[in-house]
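seq/struct pair 1
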Amino acid sequence: MMAQEPKIGTVVLNFRNYQETLDCVASLKQQSYSNHVIVVVENGSGNESEAVLHKAFDDDPSVALIVSQKNLGFAKGNNLGIRHAREKLGCDYVFVLNSDTIVPDGVFQEIVKVDFREVGAISPSVVDVEGNPSRPSENSDDILARIQFLRKGLLLARVLSLPIVRQLYGFYKKRIKRKTQVVSTRPTYGKYVLQGCSYFLTPTFFQYYTQLYPETFLYWEEVNLLLYLYKVGLHSVAVETPPIVHKGAQSTMTLGPESKYDRRKLKFSLDSYRASRPMFGMTYEEIKERYNGGDG
C-alpha cells in the first residue's frame, strides 16, 4: 500500500544554461511537500555547467546529479533521470520539468489528489512570466487524428520552406488582412492533454513503461508520450494547481520559416517525426520488449 505521501522525483535536464537550472532547483527546494527528491541531469553541455552543478549539489542530499558527457537530446537525457528516480530513489511519481521554470509551493499536494488509476500523465497549471495562462502543447480527444494533423503541418511547412515558395508566401502575407478573432480564455481539455514544459508521470504509467520513447532528439516527445498512453488505454489530465512559471517563450513553427532558428526547428521536427514513425505501428508488447530496457 502506497504511503500517505507518495514519493515524487523531479527530473530537471540541464543544457548549457546552468543559472536557469539553479533557479529552478531553488524553487523546488522551497516545497512544503516533504517526500520529494530532485534529479538534475547535466546533458553534455560542453561549457562550465558540469563544474558549476557539482559545486552546487555534490554536498546537497536533496539533489542527485547525473552527468552525461554527450548531449543525448531531450528524451534520452530525461530518461537518465527518470530511471534514476525510479530505480535508485524509489519514486512513485516522476515530474519531468523544464529548467526554465519556477515552481510555487502547493503543486505536489494537488497532483497526488488525482485518481491515477486510468491516468498516465498529469499536467499542472502553467503561466508565462507575465502571468498569462500557457496553453498545453497537446490537447486532443483523438491522438491519432492529432498525429495526422501534425504530419500534414510538417509536410506543408517543409514545402513552404523552399526558397521560391518562401518568397511567394512572404509576398502573399503582405497583402492579406488578418481579422482579429475573439476566443475564450477558459481552456477546455481533451482526453489527451499535456504541458510539454512540466508533467507528472504517474504510478500507473510505470506499470507499463520505464521511460519515454527514446528515439527522438528534440520535439515530438509529448505526442509520443500520449501515444504510449493510448496504446495501453490510459489518458492524461490537466489539473488546476498553483501555476508554474515558464520563462521560455511559447512558440509555434511558422509556415514558411524565415530564420535560421525556424529552419533548425523544422529540421529537428522532421527528424523526430521520422524517428517516431516506426513506433506508431507497434503494439504495446513490441514497445515493451524493445524500449523498456535501459538505453533502448
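seq/struct pair 2
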Amino acid sequence: MREATHQTTQGRKELRFAMNVSLGTGVLMLLLKWGAFVVTGSSAVLSDAAESVVHIIAVAFAAYSLRLTDKPADEDHPYGHAKISFFSAGFEGAMIVIAALYIIYTAVMEWRAGLKLENLGWGTGLTALAAAVNGALGGYLLWLGRKRQSLILEANGTHVLTDVWTSLGVVLALILTSLTGWLPWDPICAILLALNILWSGYGLMRQSLGGLMDTADPAVHERLTALLSEQTTPRGIQFHGLRHRNTGDRYWVEVHLLFPEGISLSEAHAMATEIEEAVESGIEPGAHVTTHLEPADGHDETHERRRS
C-alpha cells in the first residue's frame, strides 16, 4: 500500500513546522491587537483581539491533533488515529463561532454604554500590520494543507484567513470613523465581520461532521469507479459493492470482484492484489483497498438465498 503523502517523514516535518509557526504568530498577533485596543478603546479592535485568543486555543488543540495523527494503529485503534483531524476541524469551527458571538455581544454592549475612541492612527497601523502578517501565514497554511492533504492544517489556515478579514474590517471601521467622526461605524463593522466569521465557522463544523459521519465524497466515488473500471475491464472481470470512507489521512475502500468460471483461487488473488495496488496508487492522499472475491456464475442466486 502506498503511504499517504503527508505521512512521509518530510511531510510530517513540514506540517509540524507550519503549526509551530502558526502558534508563535498567533501569540505575536494577540500582543499587537491588544496594544491596538489599549491605545484606541475600540470595540472592533477588542473583538479582533478576542478572536486571536480563541485562535491560539484552537491552534494548540490542532497541534496536539496533528501529533496524534502520526501515531500508528494499535490494538485499541486498528484504523489508526487520523480521524482526530475531523474532530480538530470541528473544534476550530466551534471556536470561530464562539469568537463571532462574543464579538457581536461586545459590540452591542459597547454601543449601548457609549462609544469613545482615541489614537485611531496608531490603532489602524497596528491592526493593518497584524492583517498583513496573518494574510501571509494563512495563505501558506492553506497551500501546505492542500499539498499535504492535511485537513487539520487547512482548517487552521481557514481560521487564520478569517482573522485577516476581521482585521481588515477593523481597519475599515477605524478609517471610516476617522474620516466621518461618526463613532457607530466601529460597532457596525464589528457586527458585520462577526457574521462573516460565523459563516466560516459553520463551514468547518459541517466539514467535520461529514467526515465523522463517513459522508461519501461523490468526486472520490467517481475516481474510484473509473480506476476500478480501468483495471477490471481488460481482465474480463466485474466489480460491485464499492464502499469507501475517509479516515483523515487516507481512504479505506471495500469492493467485490466477480471472476468468471475457470480461474483458480491463486490467479484470482493475484489479479485482486494488482487491482488493489493500482487503485491505492491512484488516490490522493492514499488508500487502503480490501477486495472480496466472488464467482460471477451463480452470484445473484447465492445472495438471493442469503437475503431470504
